[in-house]
Design a protein that fits this description.
With about 150 residues, the protein is mainly α. Helix content is about 70%, strand content about 0%. It has a domain at about 85-150. The chain contains six helices and no strands.
Amino acid sequence: MTEFTPVSASIGGLLIGLAASLLLIASGRIAGVSGILGGALQRSNGDGGGGPGDGRGDRLWRLAFLAGLPLGVAVYQWVGGSTTIQIAAGTPVLLLAGFLVGLGTQIGSGCTSGHGVCGLARGSTRSLIATATFMLAGGLTVFIVRVAVGR
């Protein structure tokens, strides 16, 4: 990480917190990306009841949120930011990793953004345990790959 600076990290953290807060205040929704994606992929029941999670309006805000993720990178690059990403793993490993992440979000009732950003801010004990588990698993994985395996 040669381009890390505390200033850019702080600005990024503030923007993430602001976006999560605005979503919660404006709609009562948690900015957990796995839940937003899952809701966008679900079919509405079509009963026209208009309740939370029902119908076209719910899908539209979710799709807009998801579209904003790569759009944010594009805007960052457009204003002169540098993003160089190198992926050393092959397609089978990436597919397996994606499957395991999806499975983990189902088992853990949410993802790192839902638990780590939103859940901790709300004082959720479940999110505290989930985030500690994420961090422990991540640290253990780095140790295994870099130290034990020697990459």
